[in-house]
Design goal:
514 residues
Length: 514
């Protein structure tokens, strides 16, 4: 083993790559992960931010996928209660879309396909009398209410990577795998950091977790395990765009709207002052890095939301938009919305092992990672025990702050109360944001007094937090801080965002006047 720098090289720092690195490192394997950009910068931070079984997948008879996702929903609620929380969804009944019996049947399956300990079951409400109907058009008179979960997707990726590092993995961000050569003994990869000289690394096995670039990586970088390793397999790249508009309702439930094309559009309370609306399903032909929302998607989301809300949603209302590219396993479905969200793990062991990850969704990342680690262990000659199902992600254990009740959402509320008592100098809004972001690790960010936090670079963001993000969470740019490690960018004016950018760039003059 001394001839190898690591047992496994993982290429790709999205949720699946970080999940596999974490699982393998926790089993004692030596792991290096490289990501060409920031962690979760692409697909994994551009989701609808739901931990869900996928109610509409039942219509495509994907019962296995939905059951697996429903099981994982509760695992994630327990493992990261600071960034994952229960959410109730209001599904107004529009007889022109799907008949009531079909929706009831689907929701019955949704409630019973997997064990459900933490989330309440489905209910029916009268929209003419219930507060949930106030923001909706008056002709809607009935709705179904069901449970799922919400997650801060970008922070989930970072916390998984942090856990991997704590268990011994080497995490290299902004580092491309330029080439990897395979022989009977192992892999020799050339890694190129954005700043600094290239490095050669020898690994016993390779995991291709490049997401939208997985197929390209096999063809162009993983030689000679490229085109012949595809064996007819291909990815279908589907663009999903979201818009954020000023708040359309003042409660904590989300809405699931049936659209005329049989899709479901979500409207989710977001960042206190906003509503998140998405998503689209549009075939992508170009480079995923260039994916942006287009005018057709923008108008589509506004029109679908306006079919249900009393207050029309207009293009000029959009405060922010973002787009992600889903790398879906091509099942030759004609409709991008019908393409399976399940995953496939494809291992080749005719020489040094390589495992490629095809497809997947945010909710099932842990299970995917567990299965991938089993396959890698088999290829390396030793399957080691799985461990992640009952594990807690960094910051998710509140027992040093408050007694556990078995209800993660209630435990988080008690944790916030304890934090408020300890850090009384901090205003309520940044306190809740920081509690959500860091959980029980909040003491690594906050100081006993405001003076000890250093400069308040912009409202609610102190020098001490930026220093922490740089030192422990791989943050290098203003976008890392404002749009992925937090969503503060949505609350700041352009001049304030520029101030953070100059701070991150090390402008000492800026620091003196900040």
């Amino acid at each position: 083993m001394s001839d190898f720098d690591c047992d496994v090289l993982v290429v790709g720092g999205g949720i699946n790559g970080c999940g596999v690195a974490r699982d393998l490192a926790g089993r004692g394997w030596r792991v290096t992960l490289c990501e060409q950009d920031d962690l979760g910068q692409h697909t994994s931070s551009a989701a609808t931010k739901l931990i869900h079984g996928g109610l509409r997948y039942l219509e495509h008879f994907e019962f296995g996928l939905v059951r697996k996702a429903l099981r994982e929903r509760e695992v994630l609620l327990r493992s990261a209660p600071h960034i994952v929380r229960p959410m109730r969804f209001v599904l107004p009944h529009d007889p022109a879309m799907r008949p009531a019996w079909m929706i009831r049947s689907g929701l019955f399956l949704y409630d019973h396909l997997a064990r459900r300990d933490l989330l309440p079951g489905t209910a029916t409400i009268d929209l003419q009398r219930d507060p949930m109907g106030r923001c909706l058009k008056p002709h809607l008179d009935r709705a179904f209410v069901y449970s799922d979960g919400w997650v801060d997707d970008a922070r989930l990726v970072v916390l998984v990577a942090m856990d991997a590092r704590e268990r011994g993995a080497e995490i290299l961000t902004r580092t491309r795998c330029l080439a990897s050569q395979r022989d009977s003994a192992g892999w020799v990869a050339t890694l190129q950091p954005r700043h600094g000289p290239s490095r050669q690394l020898r690994a016993r096995a390779l995991v291709n977790a490049a997401g939208p670039w997985a197929e390209r990586f096999l063809r162009e970088q993983a030689r000679p395990a490229g085109s012949e390793a595809l064996a007819g397999r291909s990815l279908r790249l589907v663009k999903g765009s979201h818009i954020v508009v000023p708040r359309l309702f003042d409660h904590d439930h989300a809405y699931a709207f049936q659209s005329a094309d049989k899709r479901v559009i979500f409207a989710i309370p977001y960042e206190g002052r906003f509503t998140l609306i998405g998503t689209t399903d549009v075939e992508l032909q170009g480079d995923p890095v260039d994916a942006r929302i287009d005018d057709a998607e923008l108008h589509y989301l506004c029109e679908q939301a306006s079919r249900y809300f009393r207050q029309p949603v207009r293009v000029e209302d959009v405060a922010w938009s973002y787009t992600g590219v889903r790398p879906l396993l091509d099942d030759e479905s004609g409709d991008p919305s019908a393409v399976t969200r399940d995953y496939l793990l494809e291992a080749r062991t005719d020489a040094a092992p390589i495992l490629s990850i095809w497809g997947g969704k945010l909710t099932t990342f842990r299970k995917l990672s567990e299965e991938a680690a089993d396959l890698v262990g088999d290829a390396l000659g030793e399957r080691r025990a799985a461990w992640t199902e009952g594990a807690v992600l960094p910051g998710g254990d509140f027992t040093d702050w408050t007694p556990a009740t078995g209800r993660p959402d209630a435990d988080f509320d008690s944790f916030v109360t304890a934090v408020r008592s300890r850090y009384g100098w901090l205003a309520e809004s940044p306190l809740r944001r920081i509690a959500r972001a860091y959980g029980a690790h909040i003491g690594r960010v906050l100081r006993p007094t405001a003076a000890a936090m250093g400069e308040e670079v912009v409202p609610g963001l102190f020098e001490a937090e930026i220093d922490y993000l740089r030192a422990h969470e791989w943050a290098e740019t203003a976008d890392d801080v404002l749009w992925r490690r937090s969503k503060l960018g949505l609350h700041l004016a352009a001049a304030e965002r520029e101030r953070v950018a100059r701070w991150m760039d090390g402008d000492t003059a800026m620091r003196k006047v900040a």
